[in-house]
Amino acid sequence: MAACLQNLTVAPRVGVRPGWAGERGTRAFVAAAVALLAAFPAFGADVPGGGPKSRDCVSIFRTDATPTSGGSSIRCRDGDPACDADGEVNGACAFSVRVCANSTRDASSCLSPGVEEIAVAHALDDGDPLFDPDFQALQTRIEGLDLPSTSQDACTTASRIVVRLEGPLAGNRCRGDRKTIRTRAVSLPIPGIGRIEDADVLRLSCAPAADSCVPTTLFDGTLDRIQKQVFDRSCALSGCHDSQTRMAGLLLEVGASWSNLVGVMSTNSVAADLGWQRVTPADGAASFLLRKVSGDLGAGLGERMPYRRKALSSRLVEILRLWIEAGAPASGWVPGTED
Amino acid sequence: MDRRRFLSRTAGLTAGALLGPGLFSHRLVRGALAAQGDRYLVSLVLDGGNDGLNTIVPMDDGAGSLRSDYEVARLAGSGGLRLPVAGTNALLPLSVAGLSGRDPNTGAELGMHPGLGGFVPGAVEASGDPGHGGLHALWTAGKVAVVQGCGFPDYNLSHDEARRVFHTANPRGLASLATTGWLGRTLARPGAGFGATDVPALNLRDSVAGEFRQHATSVAAARRLSDFTMPRDVSAYSSDHAAKLAAIQALYAAQSSRPGPWRELGDAGTATFRCMDVFPAASRLYLSDRSAWSAGYDKMALGTGRDLREVAKAIYARESGDEQVQAFAFRVDNGGYDTHSDQGGADPAGQHWALHAELGASLKHFFDDLADMGGGVDRRVAVVVWSEFSRRVRQNETGTDHGSQGPMFVIGGGVNGGVYGNHPNVAASDLGSDGNTRYRQGSHDFRSTDVRDVYGTLLVQWLGVPASAVLDPAAGILRLDDGPADARWTVADFDLRRASDGAPLFAA
Amino acid sequence: MGGEATLLDRRAARHLLRRTGFGASERVVDRWLRLGTTRGQAADELVSFTPSGFKPGGRSLSELHNNWVKYLVKARSGLNEKLVLFWHDHFATSFGKVGDELLVGRQNQMLRKACRGSMVDLVKAVNRDPAMMIFLDTVKNSKVEPNENYGREMLELFTIGTTDLDGRRNYSDQKDPAAIARAFSGWGIDRASGAAVFRDSRHDTQAAYPGRGPKVLFAADDASPQGYGGFGPSGASFADLGEGAQEIDRVTEIVFAHRDGDGVSTVARRTAKRLFEFFAYGAYRDASGVDRGGFASPEAGSEERTAIDQVVSASGFATGWNVGALVREILVHDAFYASLADPARKSVKWPVDFVVATLKVLGVKLMGRESRVPGLGDRSVYTHLSNMGQVVLNPPSVFGWEWEGAWVGSQSLLARFGFARDVYTARSTGGMRPEKLVAASLVQPGDVVDAVTDLLGVRDDLSAAERSVLVGYLGTGPVNLLDPVTVDKKLRGLFGLVLQSPAYQLH
How many CB atoms lie within 10 A of CB B487? Predict the structure, then answer.
């Protein structure tokens, strides 16, 4: 009896395709119209993002840059106008990425009748340690597609995914870095088959330009350098010292970090009893921040920071120390931190 | 609108097992709705925290330093969010013929984010396009109240906590107000006239929003009016669907005389089946009578526009004489405002622009649609736009983090358009330790507007409901500050007034 | 009328199993009936479970949620999990504020292990539970800035409640939450281990804060010159064993010594009342339409108050504080079985009970990483429960969920209909196999209806009119359950109708 039921509920597979083919004329027309209207920035390359061809049409990436041949990676050098949307040597590559639903790139092998949803991984600020606000921004643009949708080649506006170089490190070198965008798209149900899923990946890597790693070019001053090189990278992360979590009442996002640190008594009671402020201007030994990142901690003072991550390099700890010893100014360059 | 035509078209849909309890509460509901002048209220949330400082923006310093302070916090150049006062995609000035667009406190000229002009690339561009002109066109027509600096005393920067305060109107965490929403209490208050099987409110989302929580009456929630159908088996058994639906309705109708939870379930079921009878029919009526307007929403292809079309459908059905449609309060969500990154400034391809353009164009087309329905219904609909918080004054590299007070909008033909409340003080030296604007600012004359002031004004001036019945001053909610009475951050008697001439929020 | 020696009949056995677990296993019912089991013997068997060590894990709320729901389906002891749900609602802690999967999972495991042991120990454990300390701001409470949040909820929600059964206040709202804040000052979390730690430097001492007065609870105030809880006008000192880390437990012991005016333990009475409302019935409108606001509310009859005092006394709960013993006395009491005779005392199933019992009884499997319910909607069980208004591990507030009528608004009812639809249309892997649940030999529509309503536990609750509606759906002639179309359309449809029926929303 079970076999009979199977036959009853599974529609013949051929039922899917004729409707698709029969409408192609109209669809092509619609696609052309969309392309015309959305033509203001030039379309770059399509990146199917991996997985079987029959599913690629659900969702693909579209970038202004050219991916490595056949792959789903883009490698860029900081400032290269072909891939870095800001076009400046500024310690970061800004990749321009769109997500397109119902791609007609390879419609002949496509099964999907339309897209129900597209989710970007790590786009939800719910304490996910891999949360990335750039991914959240991409997800917001996807919401703008007004899914579910059967419109062909429905693309988001271009989202900027910024990959910041790590550094400057000792000797003013910068190290390349990368981000990986993962999307999971679900089709509308296909009669007799159900929904199909298209999981896509796009790897974006940024490499430094030659002799580009100069602090005075990359940053406005010492605090800005500390903000971008230390706080943004290692502290103001989801689930830590960011808006939503504000661990230990400490907010290390730009615009809040200085007033959250300088002259503010530590919430750790042992540190408070010792009279240590988070940053005691001109007194590194009495600055809890410096002790936390250097690991110079006694009983009751908690863990080294960044919490359960790689320790800051000795150069960065030194920059923090110099900044504090110089009175922790909110702007300007402290000697010894600009090179 | 021809009422007879409506009835003939929907005959057979409104008849059935529901007429018993439906008719019983019917007169009461009619009375309740008439008592508030057949007015509608739409609560529209910009979820995630809208950057208020880039929504209503100082264009000059006035007598203070607002624009200069703004330019310190919001940068020019790549990743910068500064909105220019002139040139391409400049701020849209609030000072237009017949309207003052000045900040009451500093006299600074204010502008609106250019995206609120409703420019959606590829969809809303030319003057004939639906939604063209966006919120700024509604402002120019005098239909928009900008209420600056709205919020509550202590933000902890969490989305959930801030949403909870906006939903419950309960920043102090009073137990008596903790589990109900401010609009829920409005529907459930003694004498409101809504029974358990009535459906006076509709949420265009998957679940009932916190602001509608209560237990006296039914609040419906669905993405589309046409979703109010019995979830069905595959289409091959469509004839059986009707048989199942008849059976399940009979099972719920059988509970009306049984005790305890049976009756309660019966009522909830009856309300649910009422929605199934009424809402899909309202949707069909609108689509057939107003197909050109409906096509406008499709052309815009904006999520908020499509949600507002559902509101328009419910309103149109009621205005056409379908007394089974009781919904007068609505909730619409526009998400994606948590712009930590890649927020975008004066750039039509930017994220914040797209969100604002969606909001602006959608509202414009919605009000054009209402105005075209006739009967002055556009004067009887008020949309209140809010967000759980604004964003950090100082921008980060390409976006903004969680903030505090921000502007609200109250929009409608019955609104006295203009500027209400003060722009927050964004001078770096006056910010709180989290880098956000403060609710209270000591010696400064930057008074915030408490969100309860806005709610209270809506209750008193728009719905004719005593604010005390909902905001519960007996529980201490009005004691906002321990300081002297004149330093309290609340408007006397929930009576927001336009800064330029003292006019009330709503025209009489 | 009966008592613990009353023999269980089939209805009573099913009722007992449904309330103490998720759906009734006919295997257990048959065994009890075969052996001639009394209420007492059955209750002893149920209460004697070995607490499980399960801890929900995951990287997000939905994963945590789904992992617990999956465990609810397969848990060896349903009562163990029902008690975890009870305490989870009682000591409501929301992921939304705590934001830490590990701490929320650990709290859940703690409740599972401690759920039927000593309630004093349980409250002591909750007092220093890291997730709770974040949720109710104990971590922010210090000698310099006292935070009364936890102290207030400990009294109002976790132990004695605001008032006794007659509406008399149990504590001073001005003084007692503040006093508890003093006792708990200094407690916080060690970030490295996630464990509770006491920091003496943050602890409030009488010497440092003479202005705050002596460290006492339940002393007299303007509203009650004789004090509260039978301790006299000067109250009870929680610094009597010295100041410091021990105060937190002294406070708990004093709160548990609180007495109503007639000398009966306040905590014992209130806990018994809550457990009766959870296992038996709570607020309802009686046959004459009178609104009865909870078990033994002022509007209720005296028999409910008697029931409370009887189970407290029989279990020795007011001295031994053994939750298992108290639950056992409730499960043999007439009040627990009252809904068998009086349909007004039925209770609305919690969404999680509705979902888990359905999955269990019909053998439906949750599929894949996202725990999708197989069927036309293909949605995760998190989405279903969220639509119904109950995301476990994320209650809406410290007040927990609202029970009974609050579960069945228009939206949540539609959500239940949608879940039922997904279940009855689930023809793919993991879905319901109706042909395996109902004997193919049945021919009469009435017999098929009886079989299905029996399986889903609502047969006895249906009125004749309701039964005839279901029979009418199947048609007048004989039913051929060997015909796959009939099974796929009508038998599945009948399951759908019963799952969506008013009776199935109650238990």
Answer: 12
DSSP letters spanning C188-219: EEETTTTEEEE-GGG---TTT-GGG---EES-
> In sequence order, what E strands does chain A have?
45-47, 59-63, 73-77, 92-101, 115-120, 154-155, 159-164, 177-187, 197-207
Distance of alpha carbon C452 from alpha carbon C424, whole angstroms: 13
Angle subtended at Cα C493 by Cα C489 and Cα C494, rounded to the nearest 5 degrees: 125
Smallest Cβ–Cβ distance between C405 and the set B175, B240, B264 belongs to B264
Q: Is B221 on the interface with C (CB under 8 A)?
A: yes
DSSP state of B244: H
pLDDT digits (tens, 9 = 90+) for C291-322: 777 788 766 668 899 999 999 999 999 999 99
What residues in B contact C469, CB-CB < 8 Å? Answer: 247, 250-251, 254
Closest CA to B456 of B410, B506, B495: B495
Give me C91's structure tokens. 């000591």
Cβ contact (<8 Å) for C99 and A126?
yes
CA C49: distance to chain centroid? 17
Residue B477: both structure tokens together: 């909610």
Which of A272-293 are b and which e, b meaning 16 or more Cβ less than 10 Å from the residue's Cβ?
Answer: beeebbbbbbebbebbbbbbbb
Tell me if chain B has a CB within 8 Å of the CB of A80. Answer: no
Type and span of the H or E element at C292 = strand C291-292
Instruction: Compute the nearest-CA separation of A267 from chain B (Å).
Output: 15
Please answer whether residues A68 and A76 qualify as being in contact, where contact means their C-beta atoms are separated by less than 8 angstroms. no
C126-129, Cβ contacts within 8 angstroms, sequence gap of 24 or more: C126/C91, C126/C158, C127/C154, C127/C184, C127/C187, C127/C248, C127/C249, C127/C252, C128/C187, C128/C196, C128/C248, C129/C91, C129/C93, C129/C196
Q: How many CB atoms lie within 10 A of CB C178?
A: 17
Question: What φ, ψ does residue A180 adopt, rounded to 5°?
Answer: -120, 120
Q: Is the peptide bond before A168 cis (omega within 30 degrees of 0)?
A: yes
Are A221 and A229 within 8 A, CB to CB? no
Summarised one tens digit per residue, pLDDT across range C102-129 is: 999 999 999 999 999 999 999 999 999 9
Distance from CA of C315 to the nearest CA of B (A): 30
CB < 8 Å to B234, chain A: 9
Write out the two tokens for C130: 């890291």
Burial environment of residue A136 by CB neighbours within 10 A (0 to 12, 13 to 18, 19 or more): buried
User: Is A243 in the B-facing interface, judged by CB distances under 8 Å?
Assistant: yes
Q: How many CB atoms lie within 10 A of CB B390?
A: 28
Per-residue pLDDT of chain A (339 residues; tens, 9 = 90+): 333 333 333 333 222 222 222 233 333 333 333 333 333 334 468 888 887 888 888 999 999 888 886 778 999 999 999 999 988 888 999 999 999 999 888 777 788 889 989 999 999 876 677 889 999 999 999 988 888 888 888 999 899 999 999 989 878 889 999 999 999 998 888 877 777 889 999 999 999 998 778 898 889 999 999 999 999 999 998 778 988 878 888 999 998 999 999 999 888 878 888 889 999 999 999 999 999 999 988 888 888 999 878 899 999 999 999 999 999 999 999 999 988
Instruction: Pick from C191, C373, C486 the residue to mutate for testing the A interface (most A CBs within 10 Å).
Output: C191
Strand partners, B419: B146
User: Which amino acid is residue B264, in one-letter code?
Assistant: E
Alpha helices in A79-212 (DSSP H): 133-143
3-state SS assignment for residue B201:
strand
By Cβ distance, the residue of B78, B306, B340 closest to A136 is B340
Most A CBs within 10 Å: which of B78, B204, B224, B308, as the mutation test of the A interface? Answer: B78
Chain C contact present for A14, CB below 8 A: no
